[in-house]
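Quick question: what would this complex look like in 3D?
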Amino acid sequence: MLTTHAASGVFSVTWLIIAIPLASAAVLILGGRRTDRWGHLLGVAAPLASFVLGLVEFATLVGKPEVERSIDNHVFGWTIVEGFHADIGLQVDALSISFVLLITGVGSLIHIYSIGYMAHDPKRRLFFGYFNLFVAAMLLLVLGDNYLALYIGWEGVGLASYLLIGFWSYKPSAATAAKKAFVVNRVGDFGLSVAIMVMFATFGTFSFTGVFSAVHGADPATLNAIGLLLLLGACGKSAQVPLQSWLLDAMEGPTPVSALIHAATMVTAGVYLVARSAPIFDLAPTAQLAVTVVGAVTLLFGAIIGCAKDDIKKALAASTMSQIGYMILAVGLGPAGYAFGIAHLLTHGFFKAGLFLGAGSVMHATKDEVDMRRFGGLAKPMPLTFATFGLAYLAIIGFPGLSGWFTKDAIIDAAYHKGGTSGFVLGSAALIGAGITAFYMSRVVFMTFLGRPRWEADVHPHESPKVMTWPMILLAVGSIGAGYVLMLGGRFANFLAPVVGHSEEPSVQPASTAGLVTLAAMVVGVGIAALMYLRRPVPAVAPAGSFATVAARRDLYGDAFNESVFMRPGQYLTRLLVFFDNRVVDGAVNGIAAFFGGFSGRLRYVQTGFVRSYALSMLGGVAILVAALLMVRG
Amino acid sequence: MSPMFYLYLSAVLFTLGAVGVLLRRNAIVVFMCIELMLNAANLALVTFSRINGNLDGQIIAFFVMVVAAAEVVVGLAVIVAVFRTRRSASVDDVNLLKY
Amino acid sequence: MPWLTVLGVIPLVGTAVIAALPRERPVWAKWTALATTVVVLALTCVIAARFDVHGPRFQFTEDVSWIPAFGIHYALGVDGVAVVLLLLTAVLWPVVILASWHECEQTRRSVKTYLGLFVSMETVLIGTFVSTDLFLFYALFETMLIPMYFIIGSSGTPRASYAAMKFLLYSLAGGLLMLAAVIALYVVGPKSFLYSDLQNLHLPTADARWLFLGFFAAFAVKAPLWPLHTWLPDAVAEGPVGGSVLLVGVLDKVGTFGFLRYCLGLFPEAAHWFTPVVLVLAVIAVLYGALQAIGQRDLLRLMAYVSVSHFGLITLGVFAFTSQGQAGATLYMVNHGFSTGALLLIIGFLIARRGTRGIHDFGGVQQVAPILAGVFLLASLSGLALPGLNTFVSEFLVLVGTFTRYEVAAGFATAGIILASIYMLVMYQRTMTGPVRPHVEHVRDLSLRERVVIAPMVAVIVALGFYPGPILDIIKPGVAATLQQTHDTDPQPAVQPAAVAPSGGSS
């Protein structure tokens, strides 16, 4: 087990990585209109500064011997009550610094892009304030050295996601989508918080080092329970089945939000959670199996939905869901898959952000049109967007030599290497998923950029300004190069090994049997898409479609299921309970009051007003008293 | 003569007064019957004083007389006031204070 | 210096001054009321600062024999729990007075009567928190009903009279059971009402259980615990908003404070014996209150049911018998006062602008009054216990503290966080987002006075979210003393970490 070292040098200012965007967010949110003029510049400078700091730390970390590559930076803490310490520390190690670089690096690019994309929005500085808030929370999530800090960041990114999905909350659909995202995430948070409670009850601590050093003494049932609860949390944040339904709706937010939060970073937090909890999952085989099943199911689920969506952002969102399914599948495989899952997460960060920014660029050029049936032939007026989008597309479908090819093939390979029936099923699912990915991504590219123009007469597509194209170019470079940097010679796996453990598997061989079959599946997928969307003209109105198409268009009935199983019965339940409270509980109270009121109402008629009847009752009373006295004393 | 006879007389007077209060409607008569009951009580008190050979009963009898005098003053004034407004001295007509 | 007596007398003096002011000058009454409560706040801060967390449990004690024949003392003193509740009281009162600046002219009572009721009630509340003599506590506990009864009924509508009467009858019924228990405790106990004399009594088991029930009934009505809660929605909805803030913010805390101080402190064995029942009621309250809140169409009734849910959590923490649970519950009492108080105040601003409390009459406020909407969102997020805001710390402590001993109860209660996000965000969505509804377009943003009212609440919500340490330090010794009374220790973790971590969160 890796020991943690106290921070010194550049690592003692790790807190600045979080504090800078947080301070910037506070200035932009509280500053009001005063910050309108320079707000976006501050908003971009903050993540850039964090990125530079992260790079310096990364360089220092790589320069250290392997055993010293985990630095803990204690920020503050107090003993809340005896035996319950809330120590918030920041832990820099291979895993967290990889995330820091992804979040601040890709994050900065998307921030820069947003300057152009949000240029005409009157609340642009508020947008940057929320964006910075997100970056700060996400950094806390990955840098925290205990589950409590992770949870705080976890909820923080949820809040930022809520605010940004609902950024245009005057649209009821955006407000509803924001609420839905938060509520569904809360179901996952329920799992995470109960998991933390189980940890505290079992180990008496929340810290990664404390929990991980004690896992060997815990019984497997407890560890499985913790693992499954963590998985529930991961499902919520990463939009995995069965908590997948919010991600497609979340596309109501501005496109940079979809790129940063709902593609590159926040939705991958579930993958981070599982990878970070590797010591727990390694001893919890049932939970691990559940993780792989969730991953495999989701990667097919997302891929199928992606095939039927005409909304370019929703097609990309379904693809995100599917790609995260790959990552979850990978980290569920144990030490064999952690490095591949995280590597795919990083490369996905580049090419998916590139795809979303490309989609944003297209929308920017076509008056915020998202229906791909109204695009077509956009390659000519928007060559740069087409080029960058195309490279990212080649990366995601696993075109040999590009980054997605390295990481996705590695995952499929690792799944087959798991062995047994489960390994075969999981590997085949991933393989089929790769074929479908090639199909639906080709469909997106063909419908958007190739073929005949189908846009409206008053739309004049044009290339986006430089402030938007440069981030896209840099992300495209990342989509090409990240695979070489990470995967050749198992470099990344070795870098991560101190955190997640060594893999016994040899480093990935691009020419393996599974790799060749995957390549074939990809070619078939692209070919079918070409037949359907290049050879034939694309109708402007979606055809009725088969049963499968309709099901995929309706998100495989995920929303219908939630609505009929949770929402409607829930509404009936609350109505019934309100009725119950008003009539039964309150009715009982009012009933008692009414009983005494009625009884007293009868009783008062004894007061007739006739003096002589009062006198008679007095006489009677005296007689009874005397009789009683005589009986008792006599 | 045994003091017990005074007690019997007192009991008879008290009963007469009580019956009068219960049966008669004229406020003046009711009033007189109450006086009768008070005086029956006085007679009993004085008799007890005699039987026990101390003065306690007689002292209480004086208190009762004072209270009765005060009561006559207030009571008659009330009756007169009621008679002036209602033209009747029947206690059954004064029944507004009910329910 | 008899700090606590002075603290309690200041509002009384203020009330007397307000009573002597001429009726034609309502502004004088307003400023007097505000000044009085601000002085109380300042003095309370001094007391909190001078409170020695390492000192004896009760500090600033005063003890004068009052009615020697019955062993009744005028005895005051504060422990950590009482100090933080005093702080809550002292902060909320001036805020509410300032928030009622115009509202107090729209009741059927004169301004000086209305404000006099408010200010006099502060004396009673301070008294209930600082008295260490059971008789004195009981007397003040019942006196509290008088000003609150008149405040709830001050709008004069039949519904308001009904709500005020319901509040009074409910509270009296509980209070009488407690009176019986107080007298019985005197009879079977050491013929004294001093709290210090009543601890560690060796009462017969059955007697102690009956006495516990008597006290529990009074506090369960006050706190309101399911199913004794139905007076709260009526009282909150029909009373003036300022009164409702004090009602759920402070008055109801006397109930949960009573659980901790009297039910657990005096009858530890009986408290343990009844724990399963209380936990079930508390979990029902958490979920039932939340579901009710989701189904409400009236903003104020919604907040009342939210409070029922939160009081369930507080009760859960108190009866978990762990230091985390009870410290969390005490902190929750403070946090709930601020987060629900802030929400009620903002709802009050909304009602003042729009003249209705129906959720569906609002919509799109965010576009016409962004600051109001922003503050409302912050308070709502605090209400759903978002990390970084005050309620999270307390809610998490309560749930963790409960989980270490009663896993199932804590698990069910944790499901409440899902429901919390639904009722808070649905309320926010319906009132603040979407297109601007008719009549909403004239809603003004917060005025300067309203910003002054809401600023301290927001400051506390954020400050206690990031750093609740100072408050927790005050609470800890009080909770530790309670756990000593009940002879409880925290459950130990099943597995000890193999190696001691060099830094970071370790146990």
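Answer marked as accepted. Chain B touches chain A at residues 18, 21-23, 25, 30, 91-92, 94-99 (CB under 8 Å).
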